Amino acid sequence: MHQLLLAAAMLGAIAFGGSQATAQAAFPSHPVKVVVPQPPGGGFDFVARVLADRMGKQAGQPFVVENKPGSGTLVGTDFVAKAAPDGYTVLTGSVSNLALNPGLYRNLPYDSLRDFEPLGIAVSYSYTLMARKDLPLNTLKDVVAFARANPRALTYASAGAGSGQHVLAAALWHLAGVELVHVPYRGAQAAYQDLLGGRVDLFFDLAPTARAQIDGGTVRALAVSGRARNPMHPELPTISQSGVAQLELESWFGLFAPARTPPEVLDQLRADLAKVIAMREVAEAFRKAGGQPLNLTGAETRALVQRDVQRWTRLIRDADIRAE
Q1: Helices and strands in the chain: count of H runs, count of E runs
Q2: Which residues of the chain carry a pLDDT beneath 50?
Q3: Tens digit of pLDDT for each residue in 276-307?
Q4: Domains in the chain and their CATH numbers?
Q5: Which tens digits make up the pLDDT trace of 232-265?
Q6: Contacts of residue 96, Cβ cutoff 8 Å, sequence gap at least 6
Q7: Contacts 24+ apart (CB under 8 A), 270-274
């Protein structure tokens, strides 16, 4: 009997210890870092903060946004690719750092498909082409006509060489057969300072951050990059409708974990993200900023990244667009 009682006590201790270990290992047990590979103030940052705030409440641990800019979007993206695959460091991924960079860099330090596990896509935004307020050109067609007659007389800003703003604009000028001068900045906010100050002529930026300047009358909006007009600015034609080139680009945003993250952690992150994306307040926040709310699964996200990598790598190399 004594031996039976001892065995029962040992089994109970093992079971109790196992439950303690499970409780200690429950994910997340401490804050999760959400890396944004650009400075504060741009589209990456906006989406990351909307998601991180709700993800933290959903998971019961803070999701802390950390901006890691540098070399376009390379520094922050590569940081997550090489982070510990434990779910505590995730990437804000976009068409820019995951689909455009493979065409821009011959020796990219990460592989967009191999080094990341998609968690889901939350929203997509078109870009809006803006001109400085006093530029005497009223339409995209006017800009192209002037640029054709005056090569390299116009300048266009970007949030950095290789950013979505840069690639979209450079692809447009290539397809239209005109030459403008690229002026890269460290993030969208710095580009806006010179656009508003009249020191640069044109700037493509994502709809959420462009909206305030357009509504405030500090810039002149010329066109949008999506397949359809943006409901936020229905008077603006798409690039294709402007008649200067057949081109469209929408920047999707979502969250990605390092490859080899444990399946149970990925499942938890994906489930929490799906719940957050489905929240009415989140969809409304994205819609108010001119976005199209999405709720793509991990598998759907992987297929989207693969499609855009193939499509844009071809266009970028045809146009000889370089990030370096």
Answers
A1: 12, 10
A2: 2, 4-11, 13-24
A3: 999 999 999 998 888 889 988 888 999 999 99
A4: 32-125+250-318 (3.40.190.150), 126-242 (3.40.190.10)
A5: 889 999 999 999 999 989 889 999 999 999 999 9
A6: 44, 72, 73, 162, 163, 164, 167, 251
A7: 270/119, 270/120, 270/297, 270/298, 272/55, 272/58, 272/59, 273/51, 273/55, 273/119, 273/120, 273/122, 274/120
Query: For residue 20, what pLDDT is reported?
Result: 40
- Grouping H, G, I as helix, E, B as strand and the rest as coil, residue 92 is strand
pTM: 0.78
Residues in CB range of 136: below 8 A, 6 or more apart: none
Give the pLDDT confidence score for residue 233 in this predicted structure.
Answer: 86
Among candidates 132, 275, 259, which has minimal Cα distance to 192? 132
What does the pLDDT read at residue 22? 41
What single-letter DSSP state applies at residue 95?
A: I
Half-sphere exposure of residue 8: CA atoms within 13 angstroms, side-chain side: 5
In angstroms, the CA 113 to CA 256 distance is: 11
CA 276 to chain centre: 17
Q: What share of the chain is helix, strand, coil (3-state, %, to 5)?
A: 45, 20, 35
N- to C-terminal Cα separation, the chain: 77
